[in-house]
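FAQ: What does the model actually see?

It sees only this:
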Amino acid sequence: MLAEAMFSLFITMMVLLILQNLLLSIKKANLNQNQHVNEVAYAYVQLENFMHAEKIKTVYPLPKLATSNSASFKCIDRKGEETTYRIEYYRKNILKVSGAGKGYMPLLFNVKDADFKTTKDKIIIRVNERNKGKSDLVFQLDEEREKENDKAKKKET
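And it is asked to produce this:
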């Protein structure tokens, strides 16, 4: 009778250990499945924070410099200094931001292709990741303001 009780406890412990490991495996598999969403979200937040840092006064896209593989934007800081940056699909697998001869900031790796659309107040990047699906990164920016000289000329005419 004592042996049967010990054997029952042993079997119960084995079943609990197997269930615990099974639940941990399911949890890890679920986290890995959603990992690419986190990478895309992180890239979006990283660039959004860069564009709207405290020292930045205004940011606007440059549609004239846009191509299907890149988009450009200009940052004007609180001191009035202007810096032009470029977001581009680089070496067939990286989405990066570069500008002003200051190197580059990688945003997203393992990109199969990227398509850019730039309007007067928005940059839209459609990213197709390798084996993970498609995502859209949409950055709402300011519109480019006319320079003071252009305003003065318009008033004179």
